[in-house]
């Protein structure tokens, strides 16, 4: 490919090559003048140059003749229309493109679909995660629990839950400050994580409360998991004196729905509190 000296002089070549999404420099005849680094990774025929539609769609005639005029932002830009395009293919794949004019004969075309998809995935992930502990947040763990109840019902599998509350956590915050309290929360979360399987789910339900979902697990085994968590936390040095937890365990029963299962695990946890804390109770 011949790279325009104008691109080099104005630093546009370096700029285009640094973009985190595929970008092409094209002339007014739709010839590919330059493909940036991300474009070279994305398009199989990037080395061959040629027409942009050959490179990006693998077809031998203009894409607007195949998919319609709305799919080409460069053509729309030349016709003084809004220089962006969005279209979907089968299987949910989509393309989002934007064009920009460099001068009378040179254009930039940006392919934002994979970049936007990555951002959407990241935003969805961040929307589900508690930033302090890295666990699911309350909304997401409630959604997972509802789904797991439905799945357990469908396949006849056991399902158990553990409701964990850090004992006297307000006292830790009042005595040592909220920054130290956050350190305790992170450390408790890490200790919980070490006792769980990859197939288990855990979320931060409230300030110092955690919900653990154990698919395909009978309550008896869930009690053993809760005891291991309790013992591990009791042994740990948090630098704030003794830190303990109270845990309530229950399993899916009879005609349970989310509400009845939650009420029972909540009651089990508060039973552990009433019996002196630093213990596991089951209902």
From TrEMBL:
Assigned EC number: 2.7.7.65
Which residue numbers delimit the GGDEF domain?
157-283
What Gene3D superfamilies would the database entry show? 3.30.70.270
- What reaction does this catalyse? 2 GTP = 3',3'-c-di-GMP + 2 diphosphate
Q: Quote the SUPFAM superfamilies the UniProt record gives.
A: Nucleotide cyclase
- What domain of life does the native source organism fall in? Bacteria
What PROSITE patterns is this protein classified in?
A: GGDEF
Instruction: Name residues in a coiled coil.
Output: none
UniProt GO molecular function: diguanylate cyclase activity
- Name this protein carries in UniProt: diguanylate cyclase
What is the protein's species of origin? Aquifex aeolicus
